Amino acid sequence: MKHYLDYKRLFSSVFFAGLLLILGLIPFVFLHAETAGEIRNKIEQKSADIEKLEAEIRAYQLELEGLGKQKDSLSVSLKQLDITKKKLNADISVTQNKIDKTSLQIQNLTSDIGDKESSIIVNTDSIELDMRKINELESESFVEKILSNEDFTIIWNDIENMVTVRESIRDNIKMLRNTKVVLEDTRGQTIEAKNELTRLKAQLVDQQKIVIQNTNEKNKLLAQTKNSEANYQKLVQEQLAKKLAFEKELRDFESELQFILDPSKLPNAGVLSWPLARVFVTQEFGAKTGPHRTYASGHSGTDFRARTPLPVFAMADGVVKGIGDTDGICPGVSFGKWVFIEYNNGLSSTFGHLSLIKVSEGKKVRRGEVVAYTGGTGRVTGPHLHVSLYVSSGVNVSTVPSISCLGKILKQPIAATNAYLDPMYYLPFYVPQP
């Protein structure tokens, strides 16, 4: 008889120990809930700050677009640079707030992970206790218990206890499995948040570099013009003359290059992705000479609106075959800062007029990877992104001795005239905005 009373005592002690453990966790849970609530409030505040700053950025953008429609003058150029700097500083504030918000989200997720790991430990310990109880209850065979006891009530109590413990084990195992699934999901969210944090920190560094560059551009413009409108207009005319002369030189040179285009080796339409997050075409490629636009005359690529520095994405998987800055040799006549990528689908592209280059020659890039930021370097009347597209077999990074810039040799992508392609044919379907 005493033997079975010990089992009951053991069961009771396990029950009360578990109850005390749960009661002991209650203050911790409420304490943590309060902390989690504070974190959520901070996250909401960061979201509100970001929304306010983004509204400010949209206002700057509208102001820049309005200035872009005004007649080119020194005062307009200086104002564009000033507003661009304000917008960049607002961009930096947004990025910093996003970094802070993401850090808070990681803190919250890390705390959730701690809770779930604690829950797993509690469930595991509970299963171990139940398993030990089962082993002790089953230490004697059922027949031996019947033969050694006259009180069948005790035996039935033991049987009920065994059933209860087994059900408890099943419930704890189910809870354990569910908690592990949620834990894995939470850990996955934490990894994603940390990756986003890394991306945002890199973006912040880029934006800070572009602010410095913007300041240098303004100082350079003031030094060149001595803050005189007449000097500014003279500078504009000199750069325009150089630009037109260089474009003629380049077209004459490229028209002499021999290249046989095999249309059957070109990829299908729509194989590329957009180089910008938002697209607005400001100038089309070439001229319409048939069913498609060609480079028989007109513009050597497609221009996209980008009043302020925006991330530029690789349009497909490929390799960076060259980078450069024509302004370092002959300012204001060509691409300025450029990136040339050869894609794996037989096409190649040049991104021109960039403010900041993020890749190096020989780097493999993936579709959608940031390779640069838009800007206003080279031959531009205002900041934008220029995209030239070619058949890969008809273009190379080469050098061009320049007559317009006497004694200067420019390095940039050079292609046979018939190797140029219309970027819009290979990009996603575009619906012009009003």
TrEMBL record:
Keywords: Coiled coil. Residues 36-98, 183-256 form a coiled coil. Pfam families: Peptidase_M23 (PF01551). Residues 298-391 form the M23ase beta-sheet core domain. GO terms for molecular function: metalloendopeptidase activity. This is M23ase beta-sheet core domain-containing protein. The lineage of its organism: Bacteria, Candidatus Nomuraibacteriota.
